[in-house]
Known about the structure:
mainly alpha; three-stranded antiparallel β-sheet; 6 strands; 51% helix; 6% strand; binds carboxymethyl coenzyme *A
Amino acid sequence: MSAKTAKLVIGSKEIELPIHSPTVGPDVIDIGQLYAKGDVFTYDPGFTSTAACDSTITFIDGEKGVLLHRGYPIEQLSSKSHFLEVCYLLLYGGLPNAVELDDFETRVTRHTMLHEQMLNFFRGFRRDAHPMAVMTGVVGAMSAFYHDSIDVNDPWQREVASIRLIAKMPTIAAMAFKYNTGQPFVYPRNDLDYASNFLRMCFAVPAEDYQVNPILSRAMDRIFTLHADHEQNASTSTVRLASSSGANPFACIAAGIACLWGPAHGGANQACLEMLEEIGTVDKIPEFIARAKDKNDPFRLMGFGHRVYKNFDPRAIVLKESADEVLELLGVESNSILQVAKKLEETALADDYFIEKKLFPNVDFYSGIILEAMGFPTSMFTPIFAVSRTIGWVSQWKEMVTDPKMKIGRPRQLYVGETKRDYVNIEDR
Length: 429
Ligand code: CMC
C-alpha cells in the first residue's frame, strides 16, 4: 500500500485505496481493486476524472494554461526548436545532441517515399473522397505494405514502424490532397525540411517550379509542433485502446486518424472555417453569438472552448502570432472570412457568456485561419492535424507497448437496459 490512501465508505463497508503521486499535477486514487473489494464500478462518462495510464511524455495544467513535452514548455519549443527535434524529444525522452538530431533527420527523410504500389491504392478511391477517409484507409493499409515492421514485440520493428509513420504521413496527406484535386502526385524532396517538403508536395505542379516561402514554412512547422502531442486526448486514447489488444502500429494509428476526424476533436478547424463561411459577413456575427448562447440551439462556436484548458490555450497564443505574420505576408486583410474571424474573436472575448464559461479561441481557431490563408481547402485541415499528431500517437503507442503494467483496455458500464426476459416468437409479437 502506498503512503497516502483514500477511504471509500459504501454502506457498512470501508475500502482503503492507494493514492499515487505524480511528479507534477493532481494525485490519482488507484481504483484497480475496487470491483474485487467493493463489488462496484466507478462511473465517469467522457473520462473527465479518470487517469487511464502512467505517462512521461506530456503534462498539461488546464487551469494555468501549461503544456510541457518531456518537461519543456511548448512556448520554448515552438520558438526555439522545430518539429523534427520535437519529434525526437517526444519519441526518445530527451533533446538530441547535434549528431543524434542529424542521424534522426536522415532516418526520417530516407523513409518519406511510399511503396510505389500504394499509389494504386489511392487510385481506388473516388476523387471526391474526403482526404481523412483516404488517410484512414491508406495508413491502415501500410500494414499490408510494410510487413517487416508490424511485430509489436520486436524493438527494431517498433523503431522502423515509428520512423515510417513520421516520415510517410506528410506524403500520404499531400497525395490524398493531390488525388482530390485531380493533380499528379508530387514525390517528396529530401533536401527540404519537413514543413517545406510538405508544402511543396501539396502545392507544386510539374508545369512550374514551386519556391517555398520561409515564413509559410515556419508557420507550417509551428502548426506541426503545436499539435504534436496532447496527452490522453480522444484520438491518442483510441490509439492506446486499439494497441492494448496487440494490434499492429499502422492499424492503431489508422484508428487514431478516424477518431481525430470528428468535429469535437481534430475536425474542429474544418468546422470552424465552415462556420466562418456560413457567418459570411461581420454584420451577421451577433446573430451567431446569440445562437451559441441559446440553450435550445445545438449550435456552438467552433474553435472556442476546450475540455482541459479552462483559462487559455497556450498553443493558441503562439499560433495567433503566426496567424498575424502569415496574414501580413499574404496581404489577406481584404479576405472576408478572415475579417469575420478577427471580429468574432474580439466579440466573443468581450461577451459575458464566453467570459463566465471561460470559452476562448483554441488552437484550431488560429490553425484554420493560417491554413485558409496559405491556400489549403478546409478538407485538408484535419489531415494536417493528423500529420502533426502522428508523433504523439507513435510516442504514446511506444510508451504503452513497453509498459509492464499494460493490459487490454476493457471499460465496464452502468447497465440501464432491460433485465432478463424471455424470447417471444415472431407470430406472438
Ligand atoms: N460555444 C458555445 N458554448 C459552448 C462552447 C462553444 N464552443 N463550448 C462549450 N460551451 C458551453 C456549453 O454549452 C456548456 O454550457 P452549460 O454549462 O450552460 O451547459 C459549457 O460551455 C461547458 O461545455 P461542455 O460541453 O460541458 O465542455 P466540454 O469540456 O465537454 O467541451 C469542447 C469541450 C471542446 C468539446 C467544447 O468546448 C466544444 O464543443 N467546442 C467547439 C468544438 C471545438 O472547437 N473543438 C476543438 C477542441 S481543441 C482541439 C483538440 O484538442 O482536439
